[in-house]
Amino acid sequence: MxxxxxxxxxxxxxxxxxxxxxxxxxxxxxxxxxxCEVRAGQLVDxxxxxxxxxxxxxxxxxxxxxxxxxxxxxxxxxxxxNRIRFGMVYLQIGRGVARRDLAFPVPxxxxxxxxxxxxxxxxxIDASAATGIAVVSVPDNRWGRVDIKSVGLLPNALARQTAIxxxxxxxxxxxxxxxxxxxxxxxxxxxxxxxxxxxxxxxxTILGGITxxxxxxxxxxxxxxxxERPFTLEEAYAAREALIxxxxxxxxxxxxxxxxxxxxxxxxxxxTALRREFHRFxxxx
Length: 285
Ligand code: PDD
Fold this sequence. Notes:
The longest helix has 14 residues, at about 45-60. Helix 6 crosses helix 8. The protein is an alpha+beta fold. It is built from eight helices and 15 strands. It folds into two domains: about 5-120, Aminotransferase class 4, branched-chain amino acid transferase, N-terminal domain (D-amino Acid Aminotransferase, Chain A, domain 1, 2-Layer Sandwich); about 125-280, D-amino Acid Aminotransferase, Chain A, domain 2 (Alpha-Beta Barrel), CATH 3.20.10.10. The site of N-(5'-phosphopyridoxyl)-D-alanine has 14 residues, from helix 6 and strand 13.
């Protein structure tokens, strides 16, 4: 099936969907992005994703180049043109095209706006959730503002590649104190021996995941306790359960960390229940 992308005001067939060689997103990663899940053709948590997009834009001193309503129309149009039922929509906004110079262009360039969408292989994701995934730890060598959803993902790409080469699906970044920050493209959680869910506080050291935020509500509805604090790799090895959250995987059980079996090596009951319940707490439409 042919794919379409929105590029700076136009819906284009994929082979024609191109950006300029001096686009600052391409040269400096001077751009931010969002990824929304698409479920039964509808956007999941659009409001929260656009809120975070506005926070990221503000942090890099850009403004939303069109109204939220107009952006919502574009997102839906790209989903519809690509006939996505279950998948994701990707949105990137950057500082535009200008002569290569680190300083912001004067006068300001027109921001670059790109939207793409693609279907998920649901069977593959569900199969992963049924068995659970393996993760490996890598040093967190990223910059100090990973709360900004910037397209500067080289450390994340290298970490993911390390994971794949070790037969794992995701990498967990470890800070200098030995605590887990987050995954290469997901937030990290554990369940302690006494049944508490632990995840790191959403400060500058992690991306404040939308899935993470929605899961807080699901967890509370189950009467469970969340501790927002750093947890060490050692604590994770000894955890009863481990899991990751992201828009593309919702809640994904983790059954191995650095080759060590977590719990009984199968997806834990809490991770499984939270995965089942998650979309009841998301905003869909
Ligand atoms: N990644 N941490 C990082 C580093 C991420 O890249 C992501 C999301 C998350 C989870 O955030 P959310 O729940 O809002 O998806 C945490 C997206 C899915 C991606 O880059 O594809």
